[in-house]
Design brief:
432 residues, alpha/beta, OB fold (Dihydrolipoamide Acetyltransferase, E2P), Rossmann fold
Amino acid sequence: MTSFQPAAGDTPPPDAVHPRDSSPQTPTSVSRLNETIRDFVQKWGAVWVEAEITAWNLRGGHVFGRLKDASGEGMLSFRMWSSTLQRTSDDLKVGDRVVACVKADYFVKTGDFSFTVTSMRHTGLGDQLERLERLRATLRAEGLFDPSRKRPLPFLPHVIGLITGERSDAEKDVHRNAELRWPHVRFRTIHAAVQGDRCVPETIAALKTLDADPEVDVIIIARGGGDPQTLLGFSDEKLIRAVAAASTPVVSAIGHENDRPLLDDVADLRASTPTDAAKRVVPDVSEQRALVQQLRARARTRLTQRIAHDIAGLEQLRSRPVLRDPASMLTGRTQELWSLTTRGRDVVRRQMDAAARTTAELRASLRALSPGATLDRGYAIAHLADGVIVRDAAQAQPGDAVVVTVGRGSFAARSEGEIAESGAASAGDSPT
């Protein structure tokens, strides 16, 4: 860039003066200074840094945060655009140790200096996290994370088994919050390493000891959080399978809300923090007392309403005429009963009269058709000795004994033989 060469006696404009050529007589402008700084910063290009995330704010899909050195002496602000965030596979949060690719930006108009992150990942955890995800998929396929395997926690455990670090804040949080909710709660605590090589074997041994104790109703495995590297022990396959095989319900209280070791998936209940575990395992005595009072009040109200309803119903029944004067029901029905009786008597009488007339008619018809009536008119019936009725005169031979039946009785006779036609004709005018 060519320096401005003013003529003798001329003062150059500030924008034309390079910052390194400035002087009290020939100052440069703020814009020219900012442009010079921007040009210098842009020459740096992208830089990889290792640091810890101390701020992580998501606004409008973009991240605005801060990074600091492990020593805490160096710190920088950064922004990560949403497109970069979508390409980032790691679950990043405050407290994570990361390696980030940053590019310096200097804004000419405002003079602000910032860094844009183009890539970010956990420090040294890439392969480990990949193995954990493969293990998570394997255990899920085996059904160890199936919700149907989750055992319900007891309403009020007699003894709570606690596995945590010795003299740790997690132990204090669990005890303090549980005792605040239920003062008579009892604990059986076994201290174990919560990170490092001793974490898995000591936690498994403590779990087996508490699981074999018949007085322990629920087991809490608690730790006060940490970076992903220190939580790897709680994703160990041996520990996960030991928890799945336990007969006592297990509560995982590892880390903070964003920490998700495999223990969270296999446990019967995941608590976000040790404090949350105490609140979820032990009921609040004040809430339970308030609930009992509420249930008593509801029962009293329902019982009072039921009694009042039954009393009102009873009074309503008692006020009805039939119960107020039971005889009125019979009195009111007397006339109806008398009328029905009279009608019944008349109907029976008419039916009997009709039946008597019908019987007389049938008797008269029967009498008219009866052989006895014919005999009463003077006719007779002649029987031979063998009982055969004589219908033809030729049947009775001379000398045959004949029984003659008339209207009143019978008498014996003897046949004289067949009478001549003339005699029979003269004798037929009157019955014999």
